Give the backbone structure.
Amino acid sequence: MLLVGVSTCRSQQLEVVSKDAVQEIIKDTKYVLVLFFYDMETCPWCVAAEKELLKVNTMPDLYDHAILIIKCEDPGTAVKYGVTTVPQVVYFRDGVPALFEVPQNAREIRTMDVEIFVEEAQQVAIKTLDDDSFEHLTQAATGATTGDWLIIFYRPSCDSHLSAVEGAGIKLRHKMNVAKINLDGSPRLEKRFKIKDCPTTYFFRLGRMYHYFSEDPDQYRVHQLISFVSTWYKNVKAESVPIEPTAFDALTEGIADYLKDLMHGPNRGKFLLGLGFILGIVSLVLAIVAATCPCRRKEVKLE
């Protein structure tokens, strides 16, 4: 059984930490378990969860750092890390959040479940991909020999679901790859996959991809992500993985985008006038060439 370190002196309550202090603790502490809760007087499940976390065993010499356990009541911080119901626990490893999801059809957070989760989650599961590494590592369009991939495309402004994807990745660690792509640093992938919504998640399998729909924010739950990549993806239309554009494709697309910007830009009138002038000159030159061409139809003599 996993034993984690909190302190050698037990108290009857976890320390309540403000939203600003939580950010500092996550930044400066290697391992942090945060219990998100609302008013303890009106949330008996939160009280029970705190009692369970207080029973987590301590043994600091198992890891290079002890695991700090705190609690936070700030709703904004909870939402930031993908918490949609309370009580809920998020485990931070070097600042990377992993959502611990209470087992389905239950509201209890049990000591044993937390210990198992922490043991499984010591190493971060989610990989980071970008324009340069995506195709090389996934081979999504060229054979898919590296296995299946669950990938979330996101921006820092819509990254609250990363904790749920990481939580799913921990459970799927030996079955498939789980990764994230920051669209702000991967413009080519954003164009290639025509990403419009943030976040957007795809499951890549055997050269095909399946869109994980998440119109309801609550759908980004650990068990739902696992269910999707296990069986539910079969109910979604399979799409072909877009081929990685060549250098020529990029050049022609760049020219097309440039012309499109001119067409819809503030100098549209001047652009159309100049384009008309150029086309007129080209037409005149072609007409002159046709009129002065020395070519004549050969006469065929009949003998």
The first helix runs from residue 19 to 28.
